[in-house]
Design brief:
The protein has about 700 residues and is mainly β. It has one domain: Maltoporin, Chain A (Beta Barrel). The protein has 4 helices and 35 strands. It has a 22-stranded antiparallel β-barrel.
Length: about 700
């Protein structure tokens, strides 16, 4: 990894601070008043505005989330450049998307990772109703967040107590028997103490036949602010998902290609009503401390504890039975998972000047630990009824007769991470410089007991490694409103297992990115245009017979992104996003046939347009129309087929009934277009989201 330039930049920043002290300069330092909820950018952990940040970042506010009926991160990302959203849109147990060509399941909540072991199926989610805003940081983010996918990260910023009195009640009904009530209430107890409570109850049918969804959320917070220098916020987030929809795939025959019975509908289901559910409970408790130690030093501490459990009953496809395109062989499996852990991010920051340069220096220490248990049971197809896709029987399983003990695994997983990081944000007139380094030390110990048809054995996998990552970037503000920028950044992800060639534990995968772009802001227009070259190394590869596994793979993703918004007049404003990706395998020493192939889940081209119209004759009405295009993607690692491109249209109406009340009406996939969302391989495809409509009544007082 290339860190020499980064190391030099950080050293220069520290040297500048030392020089300032030696010259005994008495700088006029800006005092930070701890009032309300001070904005901290996901990209810098500082108050640097996104328009002045030398990298790409997207922002989605709560009003937009509600207008577009986005209940999940998946749905919220439909109109963001660089992202292929909703790879499995019929699945609700996790958010899956790709950023700049790389897959991600991992979201952040208020700057801290939503903890999971990233090995199985239990991924905590935070409902969009409990989210104030969503920020998408594109490109490697390890310099501030440690282990992270190469393409970027998504951070959900929580609704928290902020010293104001307000109440919002939201009622929604809609397609698939949707029924929802949401309450967002905040108030002031004393001059120093304020509170806020978020509550939500939602039920609906799933898109796939016989499936259902149910969710309850309770998220209270309490903020104590005794003076302008100190604030302490305590928060709780509880979410119960007794009915979530697991990932039950379909075969490519009937989805991508025509079967003897025709094509499957968007609500097709290959599971069983008696054996298809995911029951998840998540409890998170957190504390945030903001404190000005002096006129020029500030402390920010962010701590959260997570306890989660999930029970899944589901099926997976084996293949179509020989000489048939209707009978699909299946296996039944069950997972029982628990997780508990905590993460602490301590930040110490200071402002100072050196000559004509202004510095914001950030020092951080992060510690996190997670303990997980996993139980896994699988029939491997033995004694498991198949399904006739042309005439499906959704209640074929006799649960008591399923031989789930045919193959079993139990896992104990212990993971921990310690990290130190430093970042200097330098402003010299119209120039903004950003330089940072982070050192991570991480461990992972996995013990597994396995049983196959009565034969028992045990495996162990251990990781004990370190990683240094960095970032350096610059942006220049021109008088015309244009802001050209350039950045270099790195990321890593630990990998469990052993290299069968070197007989050594796998090293972390590494990624590095160069990005060149320009931003523009005027009274009516905002724009970000970016060119990036992102390379992931140390990728795990297998020989064709799966006997050999080693780290000798490389993937490159080059692309162009555009995000633009413009207000034409008081009646019309528009947002436009477009992305072109050129992603492929550039190195594979064990299978040259894979070189040049594209990864699954990733669309080469995406684009979207969202237009808001405020009729002059109806001041209370807002009409919004959206169009989104997702280009073709590929099937299987050898790209044996393609998933066709698709274009969808959305529409939304927002009408102010009074100063307190609003009525909303939204439809996604207006034409109810049937399309395939993605295919992992020929046996595993997922249909795209069908038309969905809802009506909402929002009352504020």
């Amino acid at each position: 990894m290339k860190i020499n330039a980064l190391y030099a930049a950080v050293c220069l920043s520290l040297l500048s601070q030392t020089t300032s002290a030696n010259e005994n300069q008495k700088d006029e330092l800006e005092r930070i008043e701890v009032q309300g909820s001070q904005y901290k950018s996901t990209g810098t952990k500082s108050s640097l505005a996104p328009i002045n940040a030398p990298f790409s970042i997207s922002h989605i506010d709560q009003d937009t989330l509600q207008l577009r009926q986005a209940d999940s991160v998946n749905a919220a990302l439909r109109y963001v450049s660089g992202i292929t959203p909703e790879s499995r849109s019929t699945v609700t147990i996790f958010d899956q998307y790709t950023i700049r060509g790389f897959e991600s399941y991992r979201n952040y909540y208020d700057g801290l990772e939503l903890q999971s072991n990233n090995l199985w199926n239990l991924y905590p989610q935070v409902d969009a109703f409990a989210t104030e805003t969503i920020e998408v940081l594109k490109g490697p983010a390890s310099v501030l967040y440690g282990s992270a996918p190469p393409g970027g990260m998504v951070n959900q910023i929580a609704k928290l107590a902020n010293g104001t009195e307000q109440t919002q009640i939201r009622l929604r009904v809609g397609s698939r028997a949707l029924k929802e009530i949401g309450i967002d209430h905040g108030g002031v107890i004393t001059d120093e103490l304020s509170y806020r409570a978020i509550a939500l109850s939602r039920t609906s049918d799933g898109q796939q036949k016989t499936t259902e969804e149910e969710r309850t959320v309770f998220a209270p917070s309490l903020r104590w602010q005794p003076n302008h220098d100190t604030a302490l916020t305590a928060q709780l987030y509880y979410q119960d998902d007794p009915k979530a929809i697991p990932s039950t795939p379909l075969h490519s025959v009937g989805t991508l290609t025509r079967a003897s019975y025709g094509y499957l509908d968007a609500d097709a289901f290959a599971g069983d009503i008696n054996w298809s559910n995911f029951d998840r409970t998540t409890l998170m408790a957190g504390l945030k401390l903001e404190h000005n130690l002096s006129d020029n030093w500030a402390l920010f501490a962010n701590w959260r504890y997570t306890d989660a459990e999930g029970l899944q009953q589901n099926t997976y496809n084996q293949n179509l039975i020989a000489d048939s395109d209707t009978i699909l062989a299946r296996a039944a499996y069950k997972t029982d998972e628990t997780q508990h852990g905590y993460v602490l991010d301590n930040q110490l920051s200071t402002h100072f000047t050196v000559g004509n340069s202004s510095h914001h220096l950030l020092l951080g220490f992060e510690y996190k630990t997670l303990s997980s248990t996993v139980g896994y049971w699988d029939t491997l197809g033995t004694g498991t009824p198949s399904i006739n896709l042309a005439a499906p029987n959704y209640a074929a399983f006799d649960i008591s007769a399923l031989p789930l003990n045919f193959y079993t695994e139990t896992h104990d997983i212990e993971q921990s991470n310690r990290a130190f990081y430093i970042q200097d944000e330098v402003t010299i007139s119209a120039l903004t410089l950003l330089a940072g380094l982070r050192y991570d030390s991480f461990t992972s110990d996995v013990t597994a007991d396995k049983n196959y048809a009565g034969t028992e054995w045990q495996t162990e996998s251990n990781i004990d490694d370190t990683q240094l990552t960095g970032r350096i970037a610059a942006l220049y503000q021109l008088d015309s409103g244009w802001r050209p920028y350039v950045s270099y950044s790195q990321s890593f992800e630990p990998v469990a297992g052993e290299d069968s060639v070197t007989q050594q534990a796998f090293k972390p995968t590494e990624a590095e990115q160069w990005e060149l772009g320009v931003k523009y802001q005027s009274r009516n227009t905002q724009l970000t245009f970016a060119l990036f070259d992102l390379t992931k190394q140390n990728e795990i590869i297998n020989s064709k017979d799966f006997v050999t596994k080693t780290q000798a793979g490389e993937i490159q993703s080059k692309g162009i992104e555009l995000e633009a918004s413009h207000t034409f007049n008081e009646q019309v404003d528009v947002q436009f996003n477009a992305t072109h990706l050129d992603q492929k395998v550039t190195k594979n020493e064990l299978d040259q046939d894979l070189v040049g192939k594209r990864l699954v889940w990733v669309a080469d081209n995406t684009a979207s347009l969202w237009l808001n119209y405020y009729p002059s004759l109806l001041d209370a009405l807002k009409v919004s129309v959206g169009a989104r295009y997702v280009g073709e993607s590929y099937v299987g690692k050898y790209n044996s087929d393609t998933v066709p491109s698709y274009t969808l249209f959305d529409i939304a109406f927002d009408y102010e009934l009074s100063e307190q009340a609003r009525l909303t009406f939204s439809i996604s996939n207006l034409s109810d277009k049937r399309y395939v969302g993605a295919c992992y391989d020929e046996s595993n495809c997922w249909m795209g989201a069908e038309r969905k409509a809802d009506v909402g009544l929002h009352y504020r007082f």
